[in-house]
Write a structure and sequence with these properties.
Layout: H1 14-22, H2 38-50, H3 55-62, H4 66-79, H5 95-131
Helix pairs in contact: 2-3, 2-4, 3-4
Amino acid sequence: MARKKRLTRKPLSFATKIKLMQMNLDSGLDLLDKKLSHEEKIKVVKFCLSHQRNIRGTAELYGLRYAHVYQWVRKYEAGGEDALIDRRGKRGKGRRTLLLEEEQAEYDRENELERLRKLQEGEDGEEDEGDSE
């Protein structure tokens, strides 16, 4: 039975903590567990790109995971600042949803036509009764 390796993060050096405080991000104590805002991600990515795309150095400086910085830089280069927006949990209208809406609209149209037919038959029936008197 293989055991999973636990990744331990290196403690931030005093100099790194000072730099983090100067950059107005966070105290630098728990950035690995903190969710960064959109603006903070942009700041990290721009810093990385202005320093010869040094992802490892940027991740260490900001106390972040290499993989996160790498993904943010990749997304930023592919789609700009808007690509860094977290869209999880916000579903767009997919094909299935559109089909269901079309089916519902057709069902509603058929029900409305049926209602109008019954209404018209009822009016026709009342006119026939009125003529026989």
